[in-house]
């Protein structure tokens, strides 16, 4: 585990002298921020932490100047509707941070809000860090230069990201992915099936068609149709469907009762419990996104599908915004690590994302135990690649990268 520099406490004797500002915009950022605060406090026990954060950060002694929910917006229409308020909040926060002169300002994710804030703070002479790189490997690599104008250092969750920034002269550090610290190398399938009251000897398919309403609307019927086809072809198959929240639970329940779906055995609709469903499964059928990383860390073979609106897809292609021909994070990581021959995850995107294709790919995986074993072995290697080392944690590595900037700032007065 990374240790604090020996000189840290001797250089900072006045507890009020060190203020570390953090701006987190949503629940995942709140968790990252809480881990980072805990690791930084081990280096600087008397440091003060303030800015914008949620309940987890506040439990670590963080002072949130504004409600984090004000930044937790999704979708262009929602952001546009709140734009005047967001701009006013950012202006007020900017003025408050410049007046406070923290040792460093760390923006966690929320790039639309944080990168503009960080750029202005940097222009005002403050040290800035952006924690969680936008997907420069997929969308407009040249954005790395713009991010570099905002942040003195970028903290990356994926090992293939720092080389991209390096090509554009931007200081970026791989600090490990926090999810890699939370998943064991070997998942407890037996325990997960027991927790979900599933038969141990029968095959299990976990189905995760997305966590947002728009995803359920686009993908829900397709994924459930695919799962019903698989269930009809695999005797004794147990299908489990986690729902992200109560609203998604009711929407999925409605879709399960739509005409035309024939289930040999009714699927289990779960309240949450996505991790347990993945661990219990032989194969996971899921929408592209962070859930694919979680399934990879659970070491479960998967089939991935996704669709965006036809207009959005055409615009992205027309403007050449998309810089990759693969989409799921396990495949991106496998290719970057030299483990992508063949790619471990079957992907069905846009017009190719049909119930027939998803069902056929899922059946092929269920029927091929040798292929599933090879995928699990690849996922184990990728899991290790997401850890900055085998003894430390992502929060400690991130704290070390931030502390370097703090110490540099102190050394230069």
TrEMBL record:
Condensation of UDP-2,3-diacylglucosamine and 2,3-diacylglucosamine-1-phosphate to form lipid A disaccharide, a precursor of lipid A, a phosphorylated glycolipid that anchors the lipopolysaccharide to the outer membrane of the cell. InterPro entries: Glyco_trans_19. GO terms for molecular function: lipid-A-disaccharide synthase activity. This is Lipid-A-disaccharide synthase. It catalyses: a lipid X + a UDP-2-N,3-O-bis[(3R)-3-hydroxyacyl]-alpha-D-glucosamine = a lipid A disaccharide + UDP + H(+). It is an enzyme of class 2 (transferase). Signal peptide: none annotated.
């Amino acid at each position: 585990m990374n240790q604090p520099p020996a000189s840290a406490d001797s250089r900072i004797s006045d507890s009020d002298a060190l203020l570390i500002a953090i701006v987190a915009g949503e629940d995942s950022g709140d968790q990252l921020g809480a881990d980072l605060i805990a690791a930084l406090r081990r280096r600087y026990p008397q440091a003060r932490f303030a800015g914008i954060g949620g309940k987890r950060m506040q439990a670590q002694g963080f002072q949130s100047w504004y409600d984090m929910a004000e930044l937790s917006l999704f979708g262009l229409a929602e952001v546009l509707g709140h734009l005047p308020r967001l701009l006013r909040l950012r202006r007020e926060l900017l003025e408050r941070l410049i007046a406070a002169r923290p040792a460093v300002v760390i923006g966690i994710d929320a790039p639309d809000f944080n990168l503009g804030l960080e750029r202005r703070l940097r222009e005002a002479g403050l040290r800035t860090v952006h924690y969680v790189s936008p997907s420069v490997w997929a969308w407009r690599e040249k954005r790395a230069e713009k991010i570099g104008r905002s942040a003195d250092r970028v903290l990356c969750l994926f090992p293939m990201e720092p080389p991209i920034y390096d090509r554009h002269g931007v200081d970026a550090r791989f600090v490990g992915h926090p999810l890699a610290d939370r998943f064991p190398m070997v998942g407890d399938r037996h325990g997960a099936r027991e927790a979900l009251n599933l038969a141990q000897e029968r095959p299990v398919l976990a189905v995760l068609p997305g966590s947002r309403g728009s995803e359920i609307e686009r993908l829900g019927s397709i994924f459930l149709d695919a799962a019903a086809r698989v269930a009809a072809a695999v005797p004794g198959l147990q299908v489990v469907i986690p729902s992200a929240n109560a609203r998604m639970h009711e929407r999925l329940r409605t879709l399960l009762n739509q005409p035309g779906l024939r289930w040999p055995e009714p699927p289990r609709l779960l309240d949450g419990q996505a991790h347990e469903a993945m661990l219990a499964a032989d194969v996971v059928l899921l929408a592209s996104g962070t859930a694919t990383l979680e399934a990879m860390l659970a070491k479960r073979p998967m089939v991935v599908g996704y669709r965006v609106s036809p207009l959005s897809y055409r615009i992205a292609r027309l403007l050449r915004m998309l810089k990759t021909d693969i989409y799921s994070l396990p495949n991106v990581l496998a290719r970057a690590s030299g483990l992508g021959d063949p790619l471990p995850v079957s992907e069905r995107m846009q017009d190719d994302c049909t119930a027939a294709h998803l069902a056929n790919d899922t059946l092929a995986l269920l029927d091929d135990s040798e292929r599933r074993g090879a995928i699990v072995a690849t996922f184990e290697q990728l899991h290790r690649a997401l850890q900055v080392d085998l003894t430390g944690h992502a929060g400690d590595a991130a704290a070390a990268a931030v502390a370097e900037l703090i110490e540099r700032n102190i050394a230069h007065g």
